[in-house]
Write a structure and sequence with these properties.
Order of helices and strands: EEHEHEHEHEHEEEHHHHHHHEEH
Helix content: 40-55%
Strand content: 15-25%
Shape: globular
Strand order of the largest sheet: 4-3-5-6
Number of helices: 13
Structural class: alpha/beta
Distance between the termini: 42 Å
Length: 358
């Protein structure tokens, strides 16, 4: 079903629109004024390009160029950032150019960082092509890349000029990638909206229609936009969005060193299950609520048990987390389903005891 695009206005230091709909790639020239830019450059990856590059290019002026990167989280490095910088230079981009980040979360993160630092800043828009990127990475202005084995260690906060979300591109998304995106959707309900949590866990993710997906993605973007608008640079309330990420990022980083890496949402699902238990252990969350969270994640086809990693290595990664302060390990946790709380210092002893039993 085609649907009139829904627009969310994100009120940050630089306000912009998040436009969500079904089969709206063909309407890009009505949504974005390309005439004000000297050059257009699309940054994408090999997987996205295979399915959707031609359709996107038909919607753009004929002078658009393309930079194609390797797919996957392992490509999210300084070396890939250098490739983008060199290609932008070769294309003769100037500060009046526009970059379109067309792909998953890695493309949004890397394209945003490379663009925001090239010539001290070139405009970019995000057109996310995975469910995870549509509800998470493309909105909010976080950019960056992995460094020294640590997720997103290097980056900045730079807002896009717009975000265009088309649920039609999800039709070619592998099932595992689709389910991974639901981890962040479920997280949005857990930290702010109990009724939304109930809605998005009411049936298997693959059973939601395109129209329902537009509504779900819209609500997730509304939740994230409301939080980011209050705390753009993550000095307070925005840290709520990190529920599940302290342990999840550590697991994801370790998995990238193996032959079978976890997807981001899979790692965050395990992190949320573990951190729900931590919240119970320190007296914040009821035991029943922590059990419900694990059950609903499992029902959504997401993992909740740790891979075969040495627990000591997970602790080492956690200690390098960006949210830590003055040697304390800080978490964003839950008081109840639908209510999160930031800056919860948790002892290493409790973390180890929880990791030993999941």
């Amino acid at each position: 079903m085609k649907r009139i695009p829904i627009t969310i206005k994100l009120k940050t230091e630089e306000s912009y629109h998040v436009i969500i709909g079904d089969d709206i790639l063909t309407q890009l020239d009505k949504l974005i004024d390309f005439s004000i830019y000297t050059k257009l450059v699309v940054i994408t990856d090999e997987t996205t390009g295979k399915w959707w590059h031609k359709k996107l290019m038909h919607a753009l002026p004929q002078n658009a160029s393309t930079i194609t990167l390797p797919p996957g989280e392992k490509a999210k490095t300084i070396y890939t950032i250098e490739i983008i910088w060199k290609e932008l230079l070769k294309i003769c981009c100037d500060r009046k150019s526009l970059v379109i980040n067309f792909g998953g979360g890695g493309i949004s993160d890397m394209g945003g960082f490379a663009t925001s630092t090239f010539m001290r800043g070139v405009d970019f828009i995000n057109i996310p092509t995975t469910l995870l990127a549509q509800v998470d990475a493309s909105v909010g202005g976080k950019t960056g890349f992995n460094f020294a084995g640590i997720k997103n260690l290097i980056g900045n906060f730079t807002q896009p000029k717009a975000v265009i979300i088309d649920v039609a591109v999800l039709t070619t998304l592998p099932e595992r990638e689709f389910l991974s995106g639901f981890a962040e959707i479920i997280k949005h309900g857990l930290i702010t909206d109990k009724n939304y949590f109930k809605k998005v866990t009411s049936k298997k993710p693959l059973l939601f229609s395109s129209e329902e997906l537009v509504e779900i993605i819209t609500r997730s973007c509304e939740i994230k936009a409301a939080i980011v608008a209050q705390d753009e640079k993550e000095s307070g309330k925005r840290e709520l969005l990190n529920f599940g990420h302290t342990i999840g990022h550590a697991i994801e980083a370790l998995s990238l060193e193996t032959k079978n890496p976890l997807l981001h949402g899979e790692a965050i699902s395990i992190g949320m299950s573990a951190e729900a238990v931590i919240a119970h252990k320190i007296g914040l969350l009821s035991k029943d609520a922590s059990k419900i969270i694990k059950e609903k994640l499992n029902e959504a086809g997401l993992p909740t048990t740790l891979p075969d990693f040495k627990r000591e290595k997970i602790i080492e990664k956690i200690k390098s987390d960006k949210k830590n302060f003055a040697g304390n390990i800080n978490f964003s946790l839950l008081k109840q389903i639908g209510e999160g709380v930031c800056n919860q210092s948790v002892s290493e002893k409790i973390i180890k005891s929880v990791l030993a039993n999941i």
